């Protein structure tokens, strides 16, 4: 985790506090400057944050699209930070995606990690 810029930790905190749009902005700035493998990681997390934003605004279709894209990117990441349990995030995200695709009401309750 020490290899990541402070803005990355800020984005995690924003995500965990439900500040999905702010998280998007923070991650987007990092993503635009990043090289692989961080670029794919940032984009995947950014898309999951936007899914949370869409769900909070009752845009279930947008949430489904962005959550699916974000999870797909995380699965393709060649290297994920070892300090995190990304398998858990991906499993929880997939369960949420399945619920959303079935058009059942659900809250967005994913957490990236505890700081």
Automatic annotation (TrEMBL):
InterPro entries: DUF309, TTHA0068_sf. It comes from the Bacteria. Pfam families: DUF309. PANTHER family: EXPRESSED PROTEIN. This is DUF309 domain-containing protein.
């Amino acid at each position: 985790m020490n290899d990541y810029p402070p803005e990355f930790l800020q984005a995690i905190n924003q995500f965990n506090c439900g500040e999905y749009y702010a998280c998007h902005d923070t991650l987007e700035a990092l993503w635009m400057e990043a090289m692989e493998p961080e670029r794919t990681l940032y984009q995947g997390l950014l898309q999951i944050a936007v899914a949370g934003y869409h769900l909070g605004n009752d845009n279930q279709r947008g949430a489904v699209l962005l959550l699916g894209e974000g999870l797909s990117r995380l699965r393709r990441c060649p290297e994920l930070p070892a300090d995190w349990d990304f398998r858990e995030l991906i499993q929880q995200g997939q369960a949420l995606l399945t619920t959303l695709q079935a058009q059942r009401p659900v809250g967005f309750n994913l957490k990236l990690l505890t700081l």
